């Protein structure tokens, strides 16, 4: 054993040290950073390995550790202490921050040890939860106030937000979390909500807010440190309410809870008062003063009496005082006694209440096969995703969603079980779905592109018409507006707008049909492996680059086919290629298309892949316009003859069924 420790120490001392931009960040800043190159750097791997070393055998992490600043001597001790499980916690962001960090590192570097550590952390969070739905501050349990249900510093809310991201979003799909674990995460979240509802404090029979911690048996507000007495918390309660407000299709109990808490925030707010901080020459707070001043934003006490909501303050003697000036310098200046966080709840409450009121009055009237979405409240839902979520899964007849005019700033996903669905916009110009995700914003490594779509389709036999889809991220790299990973999909009379990677069509052997659409972009703005037929479409290039980047699988008869389309561009755009092979067996054909002068005479590019010149299939037939110069095309492309055109009939490519004739 001693020999192994010595060897381990020698390895650590010989290792490299973390340097460069990694050290420019605190731990919290590092975890939440969206700097594009930070997680791709080799330095980040040393930090990640330190995070693994800090992880206890049970799966959780200790708090207040800076993994980018661990000495060789400390590493040896951490290795020895790893199995004791002492100090594993959710306090001060511990465990949740490490898991978020490891997920990002794994996305960029794909080292299995980071994925395993994340899964182990997830299992820890599920194991640490009380049966009543709450979480203690430490697990394994540590005697004292640490066993209380812990809302302090948003510990439980942080855990629940992470669990929901795991089972409800695509954010952690790259970790290949099992369906069983995702289901366990959902159950843990649901139990957590019930715990929150059970612990909401009643003042004279009226629901109010929450304490920073509650007794695990009685649910009553509980004492923590000497100066943290049972109370109502302005700070912790705000994040709890925002969590409840974010729940889709909330129950009556949740609605009543949020409404009551918001009413309490209004009642308990402190007006015409501000806190002034006094700093020394080193920027350290040396005093705080409470000053009366009109027309300032309201504030709330961190601790407020359970009976009358009056803000109070304590020294380490635990004696209540009702003026901040009455307590000593150490606690007065070293603790955050006031907060403005409830203002966010009040800012969002009116719209939230309007949304749930409409949903509540119509919940028993909604036809799950026929729904209407309207921003003005005249429909069944305010947002499209809620309607999709309410639709019957794997329906025995078609589901139709009418989408009224409006700008829907949301990220929409039609799930695999949303088969046989029709979404019909009121008008192409005024029914707009928009979002702004892009590669660096997602920041999940080399596959971040596939997490960026504004609109994603995974359900087979899908129809979309009279809608504008936008990715408004701008020219910041890959940013998908529409991703289609489904079979038998028809997109008609739609505008699909973006820059790089606007439309992603995929699914080996899947067929997809675009009719009378406007599609714009910059680089590779139509890409993927599906068989996609574009008819009577406008294909607009916004800059000198490439239109298509097909990745047709080997052995698939057709890739991208453009028929009767117009290829356009602004006057300043003069050098656009019809396509290049994202994969070696790419197939793209243009038939009877009008090509502007922006199309280069060569037509096609091999993407520095000589093998693709023999294995890909790039062809044209009977095109027109100044951009169609067949004699100057690259020698490895084809000009089709009349005898081959029957192979490119719509029914031949899309199949014998009539699904593509849907309207």
UniProtKB/TrEMBL annotation:
The active site is at residue 524. The lineage of its organism: Bacteria, Pseudomonadati, Bacteroidota, Flavobacteriia, Flavobacteriales. Residues 370-637 form the Pectinesterase catalytic domain. NCBIfam families: pec_lyase (TIGR02474). Its EC number is 3.1.1.11. It is an enzyme of class 3 (hydrolase). Gene3D superfamilies: 1.50.10.20, Single-stranded right-handed beta-helix, Pectin lyase-like. The keyword Signal does not apply. Pfam families: Pec_lyase (PF09492), Pectinesterase (PF01095). InterPro entries: Pectate_lyase (IPR012669), Pectin_lyas_fold (IPR012334), Pectin_lyase_fold/virulence (IPR011050), Pectinesterase_Asp_AS (IPR033131), Pectinesterase_cat (IPR000070). GO terms for molecular function: pectate lyase activity. Keywords: Aspartyl esterase, Hydrolase, Lyase. PANTHER family: ACYL-COA THIOESTER HYDROLASE YBHC-RELATED, PECTINESTERASE 53-RELATED. Pathway: Glycan metabolism; pectin degradation; 2-dehydro-3-deoxy-D-gluconate from pectin: step 1/5. Transmembrane segments: none annotated. It catalyses: [(1->4)-alpha-D-galacturonosyl methyl ester](n) + n H2O = [(1->4)-alpha-D-galacturonosyl](n) + n methanol + n H(+). Belongs to the pectinesterase family. It comes from the Bacteria. This is Pectinesterase.
């Amino acid at each position: 054993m001693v020999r192994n420790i010595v060897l381990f120490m020698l390895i650590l001392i010989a290792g490299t040290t973390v340097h460069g931009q990694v050290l420019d960040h605190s731990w919290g800043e590092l975890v939440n950073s969206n700097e594009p190159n930070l997680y791709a750097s080799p330095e980040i791997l040393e930090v990640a390995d330190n995070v693994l070393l800090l992880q206890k055998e049970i799966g959780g992490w200790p708090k207040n550790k800076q993994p980018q600043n661990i000495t060789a001597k400390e590493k040896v001790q951490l290795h020895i202490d790893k199995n004791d499980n002492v100090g594993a916690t959710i306090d001060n962001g511990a465990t949740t921050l490490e898991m978020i960090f490891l997920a990002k590192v794994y996305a960029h570097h794909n080292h299995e040890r980071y994925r395993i550590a994340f899964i182990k952390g997830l299992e820890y969070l599920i194991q640490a939860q009380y049966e009543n739905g709450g979480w203690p501050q430490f697990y394994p349990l540590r005697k004292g106030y640490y066993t209380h249900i812990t809302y302090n510093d948003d510990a439980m809310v942080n855990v629940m937000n992470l669990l929901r991201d795991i089972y409800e979003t695509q954010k952690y799909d790259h970790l290949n979390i099992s369906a069983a674990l995702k289901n366990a995460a959902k159950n843990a979240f649901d139990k957590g909500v019930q715990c929150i509802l059970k612990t909401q404090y009643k003042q004279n029979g009226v629901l109010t807010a929450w304490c920073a911690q509650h007794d695990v048996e009685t649910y009553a507000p509980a004492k923590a440190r000497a100066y943290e007495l049972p109370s109502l918390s302005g700070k912790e309660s705000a994040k709890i309410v925002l969590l409840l407000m974010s729940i889709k299709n909330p129950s009556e109990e949740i609605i009543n809870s949020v409404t009551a808490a918001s009413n309490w925030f209004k009642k308990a707010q402190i007006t015409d008062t501000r806190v002034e901080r006094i700093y020394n020459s080193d920027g350290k707070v040396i005093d705080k003063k409470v000053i009366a001043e009109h027309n300032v934003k309201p504030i709330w006490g961190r601790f407020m009496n359970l009976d009358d909501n009056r803000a109070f303050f304590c020294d380490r003697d635990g004696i209540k005082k009702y003026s901040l000036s009455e307590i000593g310098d150490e606690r007065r200046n070293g603790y955050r006694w006031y907060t403005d966080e409830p203002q966010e709840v009040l800012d969002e409450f009116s719209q939230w209440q309007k949304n749930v009121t409409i949903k509540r009055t119509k919940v028993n009237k909604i036809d799950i096969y026929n729904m209407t979405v309207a921003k003005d409240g005249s429909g069944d839902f305010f947002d499209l995703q809620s309607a999709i979520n309410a639709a019957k899964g794997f329906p025995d007849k078609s589901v139709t969603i009418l989408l009224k005019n409006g700008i829907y700033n949301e990220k929409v996903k039609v799930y695999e079980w949303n088969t046989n669905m029709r979404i019909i916009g009121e008008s192409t110009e005024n029914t707009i779905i928009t979002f702004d995700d892009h590669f660096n914003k997602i920041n999940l490594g080399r596959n971040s592109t596939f997490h960026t779509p504004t609109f994603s389709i995974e359900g087979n036999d899908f129809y979309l018409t009279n809608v504008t889809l936008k990715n408004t991220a701008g020219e910041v790299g890959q940013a998908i507006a529409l991703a289609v990973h489904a079979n038998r999909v028809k997109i008609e009379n739609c505008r699909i707008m973006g820059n790089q990677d606007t439309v992603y069509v995929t699914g080996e052997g899947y067929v997809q049909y675009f009719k009378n659409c406007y599609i714009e972009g910059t680089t590779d703005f139509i890409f993927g492996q599906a068989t996609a037929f574009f008819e009577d479409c406008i294909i607009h290039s916004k800059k000198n680059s490439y239109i298509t980047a097909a990745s047709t699988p080997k052995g698939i008869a057709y890739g991208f086919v453009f028929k009767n389309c117009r290829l356009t561009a602004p006057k300043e755009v003069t050098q656009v290629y019809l396509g290049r092979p994202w994969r070696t067996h790419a197939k793209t054909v243009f038939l009877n298309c009008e090509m502007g002068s922006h199309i280069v005479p060569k037509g096609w590019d091999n993407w520095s892949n000589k093998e693709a010149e023999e294995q890909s299939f790039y062809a044209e037939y009977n095109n027109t316009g100044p951009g169609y110069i067949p004699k100057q095309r690259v020698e490895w492309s084809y000009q089709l003859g009349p005898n081959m055109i029957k192979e490119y009939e719509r029914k031949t490519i899309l199949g014998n069924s009539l699904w593509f004739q849907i309207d």
